[in-house]
Amino acid sequence: MNKVKLQGPVWLASDIHLGPATPATAEAFLGFLDAAADEAAALLLPGDIFDAWIGDDVVQVAPPWLATALQGLKRTAARIPLWLGRGNRDFLIGTDLAHALGAHLLSEPALLETDYGRILLTHGDEYCTDDTAYQQFRTMVRDPRWQAEFLAKSIPERMTMAQQARGESQSANQMKSAEIMDVNAQAVEAAFRTAEVNILVHGHTHRPARHVLEIDGRRCERWVLPDWECDHANPPRGGWLIIDRDGLTPYDLDNA
Question: Dihedral, CA atoms, 201, 90, 4, 72, nearest 10 degrees?
């Protein structure tokens, strides 16, 4: 677990799911990046920035939608520190992409030292332990040997495999209960104890909320970041969290 020291207002957003079919979401996200560069001291994106990421070498043949997104991220990183996390859809983001953008990679999880104190930040899928099938898949695709074999394939082969995996995942999720795909209470409690923090921030579940709980006599808070969807949702949704010396404040796209 790496420590990230941050001073000033910190902005966080996750689960943007950028892809070729999300132009309105991309437009909203690019506007968000400009606002963060103007107002934040640092921007952290803990996972699922992209709907899929099949390897950093796709930057060399980036289609227009991706090139535009990467340009926006690079502009932001040139003005304020930008940190990228890996989610369940873009777990193959690596150092090459970070270097190309002038950004930094977040560890899983990361311990933030902010003006408001120590905060644990992660994508959040590791806490969904009731979904055993997904956890088995997660373990497999994070194995260095699996990743090396996957990245050795051609870009078209990887793209086909990613599309097939996404389709299978969507079909499987339709058969799962909402509870199984949410975080497990014991896994969350263990994270609080291991990190010795009172605040945990994550995304992944698409269930934005602030949960207050008591762990070993300590008052703890679990903040869930929202997902972004401005193309196929009515009304559009999306948002972020700001951490400053006064605490944590959520913002939605429609009231920012």
Answer: -100
Which residue range is the domain that position 221 belongs to? Answer: 2-125+185-252
Tell whether 162 is covered by a domain. Answer: no
The count of structural domains within the chain is: 1
- What pTM did the predictor assign? 0.94
Instruction: Kindly report the CATH number assigned to the domain that includes residue 89.
Output: 3.60.21.50
- Is the distance from CB of 231 to CB of 21 less than 8 angstroms? yes
Encode pLDDT of 176-213 as tens digits: 676 777 999 999 999 999 999 999 999 999 999 999 99
Q: What is the pLDDT of residues 227-238, one digit of tens each?
A: 999 999 999 999
Residues 224, 124 contacting (CB under 8 angstroms): yes
* Cβ 248 vs Cβ 242: under 8 Å: yes
- Asked if residue 50 is part of any domain, the answer here is yes
Query: How are strands ordered across the β-sheet holding 2-5?
Result: 2-5, 110-114, 117-121, 199-202, 218-224, 209-215
Radius of gyration from C-alpha coordinates of the chain: 18
Residue 156 falls within a domain, yes or no? no
